Amino acid sequence: MTATVLTADDIRRALTRIAHEIIERDKGAQDLALVGIADRGDDLARRLAAEIARIEGTQVPVGVLDITFYRDDIGLRAEAPEVHETRIGFDVSGKVVVLVDDVLYTGRTIRSAMDALMDLGRPRKIQLAVLVDRGHRELPIRADFVGKNVPTSRGDDVRVQIVEADGLDAVTVTPNEGDTA
Amino acid sequence: MNKHLLSMHDLTAEDVVRILDTAESFREVGTRVIKKVPALRGRTVVNFFLENSTRTRISFELAAKRLSADVINFSAGGSSVAKGESLKDTALTLQAMGADAIVIRHSSSGSPLQLTRWVDGRVLNAGDGTHEHPTQALLDLYTMREKLGHLEGLRVAIVGDVMHSRVARSLTFGLVKMGATVTLVGPPTLIPPDAPAWGVQVSYDVDSLLPTLDVCYMLRVQKERQRLEYFPSVREYARLFGLTSARAATLPERALIMHPGPMNRGVEIDSDVADQPESVIEEQVTNGIAIRMALLYLLLGGSRDGEAA
């Protein structure tokens, strides 16, 4: 049975709150940059940037990061994972970079993203904003800004849909049938 | 995709699009300060070049290094091949050393295919005799798509020694696969008799063709293969088929001038033409690295046995 854990309104409120938290934590939008992890993360990053622009009147740069080349499971899957584009049109050195992703799970994607970012320069700080934290970390990584903590089992299917990519805003969880954990 | 890349016939049109799209992402890596990603860490790529080459060998070497693979360069001169070791024994040695991929250039057509029967690793054909040179064709397709926006419906002339050109064969097969219209142009002695079966047109008159083209692809006059007299003289060839400034001026405005290199300036292409902005010969070289990164990544990025662990 699929349950909706965040509706479109919930997502909008969560992003507005995260935008406020980012500005509060970093004392304004000076030196701030948002980097979304492709795909979905980049759409969320653009929305956060729009919120920050509305609140602070400052346009923060937004980039897209593809972490495929940095994955730790290359050679473990049957086929090479599909590659997307990295587009970061600014120098990350000295910036406070907020990585933006839809779901935080094992933490392996974020590890890859940090490595990828470091190859592009030396950010002053890297922070992490996610729409959903579903637990089950395999690495010592935590998010600085969380839309919602959603307790899940490992086998559950957590699905984030975003208007830009999917035509609607929603986060749903489908439990894995027969999973009693 | 196939396990090896031996011929353009190994690829479907979808494969070609996937390779070109992947190369697009890899080109961004080439613009970074640190031009390296860890995608193929721990994999070994052997460059096995038994025929002279500058750009293809260096291009493959750079591509593998930018993917963090370990690269071994191996040529005929400094190896046991010079002592008369057979291709099979050399291949078995490379196999025993755990090569994940072998990039081979050889003067005999079909040697990459033969190699696949002896080794477990992936084999990439970097030019075999007068057979094929698929990575060159792919980088040319990439360059055309990038500059002109599409491949379908492009009108392309391939001019010169088509008979002995593995570049021409691979490029023709690739272009026809992607829905372009190809005309092969050259002296009748240098157009293969079976060319009409490739789905192309044949012409012996370059001048009437030029104003209709999107791409004018000049082939090198292969002096080293010219033991037999296929045309009376190099000067006559240059007069009848060489891309002079006067001829280049009759090309439509957005048409591209391409050449796989190395060029014989003053023979198949005038020096001024090679250096004019419509000529994308240097971009072909830059794109070659991205294409080879994409191919190495797609062939080696999966598990060794093609199954999920």
Which helices and strands occur, and which strands form pairs?
The complex is a heterodimer of chains A (181) and B (309).
Chain A: E1 3-6, H1 8-25, E2 32-37, H2 41-56, E3 62-65, E4 96-104, H3 108-120, E5 125-133, E6 145-149, E7 157-161, H4 163-166, E8 170-174
Parallel strand pairs in A: 2-3, 2-4, 4-5, 5-6
Antiparallel strand pairs in A: 1-8, 7-8
Chain B: H1 13-29, E1 44-49, H2 55-66, E2 70-75, H3 87-96, E3 101-106, H4 111-116, E4 122-128, H5 134-148, E5 155-159, H6 166-177, E6 181-185, E7 201-203, H7 206-209, E8 215-218, H8 234-241, H9 245-248, E9 256-258, H10 271-274, H11 281-300
Parallel strand pairs in B: 1-2, 1-3, 3-4, 5-6, 5-8, 6-7, 8-9
Helix pairs in contact in B: 1-5, 1-11, 2-11, 5-6, 5-11
Model description:
- The complex is a heterodimer of chains A (181) and B (309).
- Chain A is an alpha/beta fold and 181 residues long.
- Chain A has one domain (3-174): Rossmann fold.
- Chain A contains four helices and eight strands.
- Chain A has a five-stranded parallel β-sheet.
- In chain A, helix 1 packs across helix 2.
- Chain A is globular and about 50 Å long.
- The two termini of chain A are 16 Å apart.
- The model of chain A has no long low-confidence stretch (mean pLDDT 92).
- With 309 residues, chain B is an alpha/beta fold.
- Chain B has two domains: 8-133 and 286-300, 3-Layer(aba) Sandwich (Rossmann fold); 134-284, Rossmann fold (3-Layer(aba) Sandwich), CATH 3.40.50.1370.
- Chain B is 36% helix and 15% strand.
- Chain B has eleven helices and nine strands.
- In chain B, the strands form two sheets. In chain B, strands 7-6-5-8-9 form a five-stranded parallel β-sheet, with helices on one face. A four-stranded parallel β-sheet of chain B has the order 2-1-3-4.
- The mean pLDDT of chain B is 91.
- Chains A and B meet through helix 3 of A and helix 1 and helix 11 of B.
